């Protein structure tokens, strides 16, 4: 089934070029289906890129989804046109009375700052708390995963000596979990971060279930509240060239950056990336949508929470 997206969202035309089936609001209103309502709090700098990456994965299920975009109030994006933000994003304050079947909270370029020093941390805590009573299941990605684990469960983050940057092997520690249906014994996911959370901290908390880890990249997937919350430390949503763009951006800025590991063919940045995470990225998102939202959310959305 297609995605129901805001009319004229740039991702619509971008994804149609990839032969991904999406429809806008005008057409979706003609279909007599109760779509799943998904809200995305997009904290990434290049918002149009992140929208497209997430929608690409959300589109790959037989479910109809109604996508909305949330933003932090009084926070101005420096890398996205203000016209785009005004057209497609709504302040949290104007969405707080709504109920949603699912929520995605993205990473943010603030991971090396202490949580309490992030300018919008107070509103983030409010949104984290709100999600528990207004959303069936929330997917926290990268910085949001670190921040959510810290806020809800007191899990600290630790600085890394160098950036965790590349594509790494992972294993499922609970392969019978519904989130891993269709997964291989070993699967890949990109990482791009300067901090980590540690396995021992997760295992000490009985409210948390460590579902996946990587020998090189560490903790990858943590579940809480029976699937009402998932915390993903990597970026399975990344497009094939995202790590390449980040690598060349940091080089141009003169920042200390190594070639992303296990990414370019033969490890050569003059060659194309070897893409081997898309299949499991699609499974991760489709399993989350199906088993932890569609199968669990009430038909009357007002009953959520």
- CATH class placement: Alpha Beta
Count of the domains: 1
Query: What is the β-strand count?
Result: 12
Q: How many helical stretches?
A: 9
String of helices and strands = EHEHEHEHEEHEHEEHEEEHH
In CATH, what is the homologous superfamily? Class I glutamine amidotransferase (GATase) domain
What portion of the residues fall into strands of 2 or more residues? 25-35%
What Rg, in angstroms, do the CA atoms define? 18 Å
Which sheet architecture does the biggest sheet show? 12 strands, mixed
Fold blueprint:
Layout: E1 3-5, H1 10-16, E2 22-24, H2 25-28, E3 36-41, H3 47-58, E4 65-71, H4 82-88, E5 89-91, E6 100-105, H5 121-134, E7 135-141, H6 143-153, E8 158-172, E9 186-196, H7 199-203, E10 208-214, E11 218-224, E12 229-232, H8 242-252, H9 278-294
Parallel strand pairs: 1-2, 1-4, 3-4, 3-6, 4-5, 6-7, 7-12
Antiparallel strand pairs: 8-9, 8-10, 10-11, 11-12
Helix pairs in contact: 1-3
Question: Would you write up a description of this structure?
Answer:
With 305 residues, the chain is α/β, with parallel strands linked by helices. It has a single domain (3-157, 195-234, 279-298), classed as Class I glutamine amidotransferase (GATase) domain (Rossmann fold, 3-Layer(aba) Sandwich). It has nine helices and twelve strands. The protein has helices spanning 10-16, 25-28, 47-58, 82-88, 121-134, 143-153, 199-203, 242-252, 278-294, and strands spanning 3-5, 22-24, 36-41, 65-71, 89-91, 100-105, 135-141, 158-172, 186-196, 208-214, 218-224, 229-232. Helix 1 packs across helix 3 (47-58). The longest helix is centred in the last third of the chain and has 17 residues, at 278-294. The two termini are 27 Å apart.
């Amino acid at each position: 089934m297609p995605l129901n997206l805001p009319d004229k969202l740039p991702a619509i035309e971008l994804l149609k070029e990839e032969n991904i089936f999406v429809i806008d609001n005008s057409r979706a209103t003609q279909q007599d289906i109760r779509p799943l309502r998904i809200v995305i709090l997009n904290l990434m700098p290049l918002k149009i890129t992140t929208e497209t990456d997430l929608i690409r994965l959300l589109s790959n299920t037989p479910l109809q989804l109604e996508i909305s975009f949330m933003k932090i109030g009084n926070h101005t994006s420096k890398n996205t046109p203000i016209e785009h933000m005004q057209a497609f994003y709504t302040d949290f304050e104007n969405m707080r009375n709504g109920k949603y079947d699912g929520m995605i909270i993205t990473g943010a370029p603030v991971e090396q700052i202490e949580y309490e020093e992030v300018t919008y941390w107070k509103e983030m805590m409010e949104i984290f708390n709100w999600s528990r009573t207004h959303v069936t299941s929330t997917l926290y990605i990268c910085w949001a995963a670190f921040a959510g684990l810290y806020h809800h469960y007191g899990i600290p983050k630790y600085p890394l000596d160098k950036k965790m940057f590349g594509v790494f092997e992972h294993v499922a520690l609970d392969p019978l979990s519904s989130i891993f249906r269709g997964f291989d014994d070993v699967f890949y996911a990109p990482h791009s971060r300067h901090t980590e959370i540690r396995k021992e901290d997760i295992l000490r908390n009985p409210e948390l279930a460590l579902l996946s880890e990587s020998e090189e990249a560490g903790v990858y997937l943590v579940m809480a509240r029976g699937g009402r919350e998932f915390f993903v430390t990597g970026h399975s949503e990344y497009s094939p060239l995202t790590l390449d763009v980040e690598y060349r951006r940091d080089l141009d800025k003169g920042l200390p950056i190594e070639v992303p590991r296990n990414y370019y063919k033969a490890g050569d940045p003059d060659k194309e990336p070897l893409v081997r995470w898309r299949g499991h990225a699609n499974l991760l998102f489709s399993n989350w949508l199906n088993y932890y939202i569609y199968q669990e959310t009430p038909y009357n959305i007002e009953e959520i929470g």
